[in-house]
């Protein structure tokens, strides 16, 4: 995967002809083509989860605890679509904390708040010309203040659900996050945040100056080069990206079959 990502980035970034572009690498200034795709690597988006909101059972349970329930919800009623994807979690990231409290794995359960309509945007950069050189990933998670607001609201939704009367038979006490407020709650978000592994958008489709590919997945200005993965999404999907990526791949196959009479 590293070699593939590096090849795509190096092919597109190093030959961008915008002299002022940050994506033009200092280690390669000899070759330029007659097009500008300097936005390659920009517009990077990702869903994020927060570990975790945790409650103790009255007695140890053998009920499977991972992703048996999923909730899509609006953290703000004025939103057009849900922006939170909240999942029942196995709490893998908080097991050490629970162990420190003297609790075995089957004695507690967890809900992981997640945000799937983030406003923060990151970018990818090359660090050198060699395929084994690292790619610098700048996700910039929570760089937009609205994402922190949404994350905090998502935690409050989890607490409202789990502390409801209907779930009292399964709740002895709340362990995390508890009644945190203000900066303490914001720190809880920062300490518990992890990727949803739904990175997208760094080679977006469109017609504006930020776009890298057209509606047929062709890279602007490059003959015989298409991109067919989550990076072409202008905005990350409201939910898991696997199925949309399958559709993108199927559409790419249809385009190639039609073009080459396969």
Characterization of this structure:
The chain is α+β, with helices and mostly antiparallel strands. The protein has a domain at 48-195: Glucose Oxidase, domain 3, CATH 3.30.560.10. It contains five helices and ten strands, in the order αββββαββββαβαβα. The chain has helices spanning 2-13, 95-100, 145-162, 182-192, 242-260, and strands at 48-50, 53-56, 70-73, 84-89, 108-112, 114-115, 123-126, 135-138, 173-176, 193-195. The protein has a five-stranded antiparallel beta sheet with strand order 3-4-5-2-9. It is elongated, with a radius of gyration of 22 Å. The two termini are 28 Å apart. The model is unreliable at 17-34 (pLDDT under 50).
The CATH homologous superfamily of the domain at 48-195 is termed: Glucose Oxidase, domain 3
- Count of individual beta strands: 10
> How widely separated are the two ends?
28 Å
Oligomeric state of this protein: single chain
What fraction of the residues are assigned to beta strands by DSSP?
Answer: 5-15%
Described by strand count, sense and barrel closure, the largest sheet is: 5 strands, antiparallel
Q: Give the helix proportion (percent range).
A: 25-40%
| CATH-defined fold name of the domain at 48-195 | Glucose Oxidase, domain 3
Contiguous runs where pLDDT drops below 50 for at least 5 residues: 17-34
- Please state the structural category: alpha+beta
Order of strands across the widest beta sheet?
3-4-5-2-9
Overall 3D geometry? elongated
> What average pLDDT do the residues reach?
86
